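Deliverable D2.4 — example input (structure tokens):
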């Protein structure tokens, strides 16, 4: 008798669960969707990218937008070569079905209801530019159904030249192979190697051993110089000095400061004017 009761109870639970099932499908209307414009030019500076789409009118129901990648071209930074975009590898779309929510007077105050096509470009740092042609598909479309989206790498600032931070002038060189160096303003004939990434230049922590007179032979260093959590400013011998250049090539910022000096025993020494606090802006000479 107990087994029968258990079976009946299980059957009742199954019926209860079945009766609680809900349809979570978004109800959509027939309000057309379209791109905001037929072209879009942006700076290529992130893995994640977005293209807006919108309804053509305010609607009490959501709209469904679908799209396809028609074509795409990549220009490589390294050699300027071009190739076709591979969908799913070079460009990875989150989804090719995008829902645009119904009109919300609290949100859609200055624009029509809209949403974004989201996609990733995993190797964007290797590209000089990338161009995608997208086309909206489906039954309810507005007048702008095709878009050419072009993203270009940020313009690289000119770094070579003389840069003044107060009384200290750093001479930055670049050879024919794109290798950068920073000449010491206090040690004749020695240049620190440096690595460029976009508009940032990171100086090597490795310097020469130099006879500093009564301090003996010491290793000279460029390193960071910035504020600690205790409010005081210190040199950071294990942190490389980073210089960040403006796009027009007229200024350079010591992002994490500059300390140019050497250690002898337990003490650190530097030349007059060779210490620059983080955030200091230098100018081209």
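Example output (designed residues):
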């Amino acid at each position: 008798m107990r087994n029968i009761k258990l079976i009946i109870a299980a059957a009742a639970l199954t019926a209860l669960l079945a009766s609680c099932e809900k349809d979570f499908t978004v109800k959509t209307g027939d309000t057309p969707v379209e791109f905001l414009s037929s072209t879009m030019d942006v700076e290529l500076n992130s893995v994640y990218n977005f293209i807006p789409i919108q309804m053509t009118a305010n609607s009490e129901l959501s709209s469904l937008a679908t799209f396809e990648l028609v074509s795409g071209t990549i220009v490589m930074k390294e050699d300027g070569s071009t190739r076709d975009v591979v969908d799913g590898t070079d460009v990875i779309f989150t989804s090719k079905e995008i829902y645009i929510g119904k009109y919300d007077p609290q949100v859609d105050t200055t624009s029509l209801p809209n949403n974004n096509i989201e996609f990733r470009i995993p190797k964007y740092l290797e590209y000089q530019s990338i161009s995608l042609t997208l086309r909206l598909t489906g039954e309810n479309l507005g007048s702008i159904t095709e878009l050419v989206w072009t993203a270009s790498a940020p313009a690289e600032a000119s770094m070579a030249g003389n840069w003044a931070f107060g009384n200290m002038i750093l001479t930055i060189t670049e050879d024919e192979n794109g290798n950068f160096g920073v000449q010491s303003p206090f040690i004749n004939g020695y240049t620190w190697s440096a690595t460029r990434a976009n508009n940032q230049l990171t100086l090597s922590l490795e310097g020469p051993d130099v006879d500093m007179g009564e301090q003996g032979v010491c290793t000279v260093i460029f390193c960071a110089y910035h504020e600690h959590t205790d409010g005081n400013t210190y040199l950071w011998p294990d942190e490389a000095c980073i210089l960040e250049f403006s796009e027009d090539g007229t200024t350079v910022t010591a992002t994490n400061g500059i300390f140019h000096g050497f250690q002898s025993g337990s003490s650190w020494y530097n030349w007059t004017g060779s210490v620059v606090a983080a955030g200091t802006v230098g100018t081209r000479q």
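The radius of gyration is 30 Å.
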